[in-house]
Specification:
The complex is a heterodimer. By secondary structure, chain A is α/β, with parallel strands linked by helices. Chain A has one domain (45-272): Rossmann fold. Chain A has helices at 28-45, 63-75, 89-106, 115-119, 123-130, 134-152, 164-176, 180-184, 208-218, 234-248, 252-268, 295-304, 311-323; strands spanning 17-19, 24-26, 54-58, 78-85, 110-114, 157-159, 189-190, 198-200, 280-281, 288-289. In chain A, strand 3, helix 2 (63-75) and strand 4 (78-85) form a beta-alpha-beta unit. In chain A, helix 7 (164-176) crosses helix 11 (252-268). Chain B is globular, with a radius of gyration of 12 Å. In chain B, a hairpin with a 2-residue loop joins strand 2 and strand 3. The relative contact order of chain B is 0.29. Classes of the chains: A alpha/beta, B alpha+beta.
Amino acid sequence: MTAVGSKCKVCKGPAVIGLRRHHAHFCAEHLQQLCRRQVAKAIEDFDMLSFDDRILVAVSGGKDSLAVWDMLIEAGYQADGLYVGLGIGEYSDSSGGYVRRFADERGLNLQTVDLRDDYGFDIPTASKATKRVPCSACGLSKRRVFDKAALDGGYDVLVTGHNLDDEAAVLYGNTLRWDIDYLARQLPVLPATNGFPKKVKPLVRLTEREMAAWCLVRGIDYIVEECPIAAGNKHLVYKHSLNVIDESSPGAKAAFYLGFLDRMAPILEGRSAAAIGQLQDCERCGSPTTSTVCAFCMLIERSSEHDPVPVDMVLSKRARKEFS
Amino acid sequence: MQGTRSVNRLLDDLDLNRESHLVIRNGTLVPGDALLADADEIEVRPVISGGSH
């Protein structure tokens, strides 16, 4: 059975995907061309990277981070990978395997940090010990481990695989709360400052669906399974909400986020806590923080003293919440 | 499910959002108007991921 008739907008060959926000279908070759151009535009528009930069890519084993690593290497950038073992049971074992195979098959340099081995805690334990929701403990830990690895390794830039859906969902949440500090620093490039490396997000012009399609047509094997702890979190609820809107108004999600960058971010410039001088150095690690001790040092202190918590314990807690 | 139907029809019948899924037929990515027959091997792949940010 073959396709009824969708043709690639560029070459008129058989299409593999329709992208309603572009009012067009694309074959595998021209889908890749579109993705490459969108990444190149993001890099150029926001002055993200240069070919002389030593780049560290944070990779999880999921589609986005492997795709951005693939794209940067293909484009000729010098990019190493960084994988952080989060201690989320079989999920972490599996995701690490995808990353190692990707790097091995391409002869790429991969660095690994393990939260339990290197910092004395894992995500389920950190969640329980700090009473943070697991995704909050995970995000905080990853950001700080990424920052440290980039600075310690002498890298010029840290790259993450955040895509348009990720950024639109965060923008949606920040807007619902009118969180001016978060809105003011929700940019695809964060410049290097004292204690922070330069951080960039080259995939902000590409959707999750486009990134999954990139991996499929490029033969990139990634972990499709969602993190078991993330199920039902607010971030996924926001993504779903935006996709419901996008299904009835194709392109609305992209317009929401890209319009924010174009027209709202300039208005918010200078309104973040960092910009208005509300940050001080953490008295323990020296990282910028709004408190005397930063959130990550507090997390390490509480988590490393706590008995290890099995993943099931966090899962069952969330499951009870979902069904209550 | 039995009977030939398009990718879009399959997603609608399963009450799945088109922006949140890709459909792979016999190992190849296919667009919304591709027809799926009983003999085809079909994978409906969710594309939404994300916990921490």
